[in-house]
Amino acid sequence: MAEPIRSVTIVGGGTAGWLAALILNSGLSRSTAPEHALDVTLIESPDIPTVGVGEATVPNMPRTLIDCGISEAQFFRACNSSFKLGVLFDNWNVDREGRPICYLNPFDEPPVIDGMDLAAYMLRFGAGELEFAELCGPNLDLIHEKRGPRGFRAPAFAQEASFAYHLDAGKFAALLRDVCTERGVTHILDNLREVEQDERGYVTALQLEKTGRREVELVLDCTGFRGLIINEVLGTEFVSYADCLANDRAMAVQIPHQGEALEPGTRSTALGAGWSWRVPLYNRVGTGYVFSSAHRTDEEARDEFMAHLGPAAEGLEPRVIPMRVGRNREAWVKNVIAVGLSGGFIEPLESTAIHMVDMSIRHLMRLFPDASYPEPVRKRYNQRMERLYDEVRDFICLHYALGNRVDTPYWIDAREELSVPDSLAENLKLWRHTLPSYHDMPTATLFSYRTYQAVLMGKRVYEAGYAAQDITAAFALNEEKWWAFVAEQRGRIATFCERAPDHRQVLRDIRGELSSRDRRRLERGEVPEPVAVTGMQVSEHSLL
Predict the structure, then answer these.
(1) What are phi and psi of 474, to 5 degrees?
(2) For residues 168 and 178, what is the distance between their CA atoms, to the nearest angstrom?
């Protein structure tokens, strides 16, 4: 039998490197007997700045914090975090009168009524002026009213309404680093100068500038878009998604809050050659523009973005970040696994970058090898990562393929010139005749068929003639039950939102900054004194 692996060496820091270290340390070091514990070492260059992989997360993030033993209060205080109740899409589509549509991609699973999907009932009977998301759960109402997803004094991580988080990427990486080093992860600040390989091409040692030669077993490449080991040393093929996703540049700045109210949602606003994100943290707003260099120069994109931000951006200079969009043909080659941006990146429309790191390490723990690095294990890992990246790619492509704007060449090209992956193209043809269903998704680790339904309904494509026929004609739907459901659901949502406190005050409560006196005043409906929020120190780079 092959020897067990006793050490993992992570090359590169940032969110990807430190999150990988923490999950491995929590799952394979702290939870095992000392003689079987895994030694985790992270080598980080002191000279290369990191690209923060995200400021918004997906709903599995609370589970990750719990699994890694990080308290919610610690996380909120250290990272200036806020709640994210979904992604609002502004101006991606227009209605039949040409007016911009704003819709929410909700975290709530749409309800089922007598075994039939909510979308089917809504297509048949309509819902007056109500949006699809307004019948899924309270999140759209909470965003509009700037309320938190749970009340004061609620248990940590309590899910009274579904949520993810916004966070400061630089501060999050620092929190992970501090927790890791406290728990025994070895941290080396040094520059990689040479990679040694044996006759089979496996990496055997790393030559560092100051600390010299270090022998390695399993290596995680977290060196960002460059893919220093996985691509430059091992020569792994990179599969570009440029044929189906045009955006290859981003620029980012941070701006102050305009007023005290804090919106608990991410906004994605379509501009002339891409889209702008808006992520409200506790202390400031992270924002940026993801765009196509084929349709805007950096200078043109900057001017458009600054005009979009208005006076809030006066005096600021956004940093341009080139994006390598796609994935490696194989994430795991020999004894090296690419994690984070070195493994692949899909534009940050649905805030999946941190999720990709999380899932890549969870897959690794389930398929952790011995020192022979069995081929079937590597093959299965690569299959899982390929499916994960392609799942996210398809869902992102959906937003462009079903766009209907005609006001700029970019939006016309996004719909008519970009390739649509075969897996998505087949479904788009099908969904002209029937709603998305469970059987249409080969994998759905993050985006289920109900998420696809929410996008189709949010974009109102069926109202605009997308359907080839009445796709609800064969369904036995009871209109009386429908309107009873609408009234009952909206009543439940109104009751929940009426009890939900102001988002900023919930954050103050979690952070330990809200006095008992102020909490009682808020619960009585009184308004406390305004709170000055300071602290604009943030990481230089961030991608949503």
Answers:
(1) -85, -5
(2) 15
Pairing of strands 86-94, 266-271: parallel
The whole-angstrom separation of Cα 168 and Cα 540 is 11
> What's the distance, Cα to Cα, between the start and end of the chain in Å?
45
Under 8 Å between Cβ of 41 and 7: yes
Q: Which residue has the tokens 């009274």?
A: 160
Closest to 277 measured CA to CA, from 4, 542, 2, 10: 542
Measured distance CA(463)–CA(119) in Å, rounded? 12
Residue 509, helix vs strand vs coil: helix
From CA 10, how far away is CA 21, in angstroms rounded? 7
pLDDT mean over 362-369: 96
Residues 283/261, Cβ–Cβ less than 8 Å = no
Nearest to 109 by CA among 135, 73, 79: 135
Cβ count near 370 (within 10 Å): 12
Asked if pLDDT for residue 538 goes beyond 80, the answer is no
Give residues with Cβ within 8 angstroms of 513, minimum separation 6: 531
Distance (Å, whole) CA 439 – CA 115: 16
Strand partners, 192: 208
Residue 33: its pLDDT value, please?
66
Helix axes 353-366, 375-401, angle to 10 degrees: 160
SS (H, E, C) 154-220: CCCCCCCCCCEEECCHHHHHHHHHHHHHHCCCEEEECCEEEEEECCCCCEEEEEECCCEEEECCEEE
What is the distance between the alpha carbons of residues 2 and 423, in angstroms, rounded to a whole number?
Answer: 40
User: What residues are labeled active site?
Assistant: 84
Contact predicate 54/169, CB 8 Å: yes
Rounded to the nearest angstrom, the gap between the alpha carbon of residue 230 and the centroid of all alpha carbons in its chain is 24
Residues in the chain: 544
Q: Are strands 186-189 and 39-44 parallel, antiparallel or unpaired?
A: parallel
pLDDT at 235 over 60: yes
pLDDT at 479 > cutoff 70 = yes
Instruction: Provide DSSP, 449-480.
Output: HHHHHHHHHHHTTTTTT--SS-TTTT----HH
Sheet containing 238-240, strands listed edge to edge, beginning at the edge strand earlier in sequence: 238-240, 326-328, 344-345
Residue 537 has pLDDT above 60, yes or no: no
H helices then E strands: how many in the chain? 15, 23
How do residues 436-446 score in pLDDT, each as one tens digit? 999 998 888 89
**Token pair belonging to 523:** 């619960």
**Element spanning 170, H or E:** helix 169-182
Q: Which of 388, 381, 390, 385 is nearest to 334 (CA)?
A: 381
CB-based contact 360:337 (threshold 8 Å): yes
Q: Catalogue the E-assigned strands of 334-477.
A: 336-338, 344-345
